[in-house]
Amino acid sequence: MLLQGYLPSILEGAVLTLKVAGASLMVSVVLGLVGAAFKMAPSKPLVLLAELYSTVVRGVPDLVWMLLLFFGVQMLINEACASLGWPAPEIDSFFAGVMTIGFIFGAYMTETFRGAIMAIPKGQMEAGRAYGMGPLRVFFRITAPQMVRFALPSFSNNWLVLVKSTALVSVIGLNDVMYRADTAKSITQEPFTVYAVVGAIFLAITTVSDLLLKWLEKRYSLGVRESEL
Amino acid sequence: MIDVQFMLDKLPAFLGGGDGQPVFSVTDGLVLTLELLGISLFFGLCLAVPLGLMRVSRNRFVSGAVWLYTYVFRGTPLLVQLFIIYYGLSQFEAVRESWAWAYLREAYVCAIIAFTLNTAAYTTEIIAGQIRNTHWGEIEAAKAMGMSKGLMMRRIVVPSALRRALPAYSNEVVMMMQSTSVAGLVTLADLTGVARRVFSDSYLPFEPFLTAAAFYLALTFLFVWLFKLAERRWLAYLAPRKH
């Protein structure tokens, strides 16, 4: 029996890892869009704020961010509750992990989306405005559909890095694939097999995502000629 | 809120000094982070240049083997690779009984092996990509001058590919510098490891982790700046015209 019956437990952990990754991706996309909008806003403080966010977050390792935010925010909440005389709430580690990873990758997404929006000729957005569309309608009808094509290569890269980063969430107590592997490792005494299986799971996730994203890139580049030498 | 005095008191620990000892007296903290980074980047680059050449080889088996290596190492988290080497190798009795076991049980050696193999995989793909991007005219000219394949690689293809690889490589170096933080998860006291120790002693989260974050941020800026200088020096011919 492979891994003395621990395979199902590891696979369950892998499902949780995927859920964390997927949910963090959504958070990061929202933050990335907001960040990109701020970066291109006509107001100086907003630009600076977005600049600060994307620079500082990308300059510090994800592991340090996770430790800082998880333990730091928890302490802040505990202190705030203590001063109000409330019982301290237990922070859900799934929620904490998703928020932390989303926050980190939102900074990378900010750069991705900003680059993609800048790649669209400005005249198109101006034309939309000239037709009387509101800014939101211009975004959803003109900017967003074309942005996808320019954003996809860098978005794919971010997603692959994000998936690999989720391997770190067990340090904040999440019952993910690495956490399960740790338990299985101690009991089965087969650490190599356990981590090889975990590695294979990650490889499968990155391979499938890579294929899907390549296919999407092709779809969104229909009608665009590739330059050939 | 944040105890600045506590941060200052603990600063020597991040610079590799113990209690009552002068800073930099132990290779912990910043020194260990830079040491792990420097050694693994050096060996990684030494591996990546020949592997990059093999990756563009016309021989399917040679380029396929290198592809498999970069595919596996780029498709899995560094933490898993580190754990496979650090925890995993002990599963095999042959490893435990060999002379190498004295080294392979050290977290330090395992971290360097894992980091080296990881950065070598990414760097191989960067270099291979730039070799493929070599302008056909340069290769044609080298052939017309009667250069042998080896001489052409050594004098024309590799030097120009390495130069053009600089911008992508600078990203890889910064990424790798940040990735060394996982060393703190296998008992090593690098910047992150020291921060975790200070945290578990004091239960103050902000002070140690913010200090570590500041160090990493400063290192990131330093490397970005150094690579800008390097690009100005070696990629001047690709810079946009100034007039």
List keywords for this structure.
heterodimer, A: about 230 residues, mainly alpha, MetI-like fold, 8 helices, flat, B: about 240 residues, about 0% strand, transport (chain B), membrane (chain B), cell membrane (chain B), transmembrane transporter activity (chain B), AA_ABC_transptr_permease_3TM (chain B)
Question: Overview of this structure, please?
Answer:
The complex is a heterodimer of chains A (229) and B (243). Chain A has 229 residues and is mostly helical. Chain A has a single domain (2-220), classed as MetI-like (MetI-like fold, Orthogonal Bundle), CATH 1.10.3720.10. Chain A has 8 helices and no strands. Chain A has helices at residues 7-39, 44-58, 62-84, 93-118, 122-130, 135-165, 177-188, 191-220. In chain A, α1 crosses α4, α1 (7-39) crosses α8 and α5 packs antiparallel against α6 (135-165). Chain A is flat. Chain A starts with 6 loop residues before the first helix and ends in a 9-residue tail after the last helix. The mean pLDDT of chain A is 89. Chain B has 243 residues and is mostly helical. Chain B has one domain: Orthogonal Bundle (MetI-like fold), CATH 1.10.3720.10. Helix content of chain B is 73%, strand content 0%. Chain B has helices at residues 4-14, 29-55, 60-75, 78-86, 93-97, 101-104, 107-132, 136-144, 149-164, 166-179, 191-202, 206-234. In chain B, α11 (191-202) runs antiparallel to α12 (206-234). The longest helix of chain B is centred in the C-terminal third of the chain and has 29 residues, at 206-234. Chain B is flat. The mean pLDDT of chain B is 90. At the A-B interface, α3, α6, α7 and α8 of A face α3, α4, α11 and α12 of B. Chain A: Keywords: Cell inner membrane, Cell membrane, Membrane, Transmembrane, Transmembrane helix, Transport. Chain A: It is a multi-pass membrane protein. Chain A: Its main location: membrane. Chain A: Belongs to the binding-protein-dependent transport system permease family. HisMQ subfamily. Chain A: This is Amino acid ABC transporter membrane protein 1, PAAT family (TC 3.A.1.3.-).
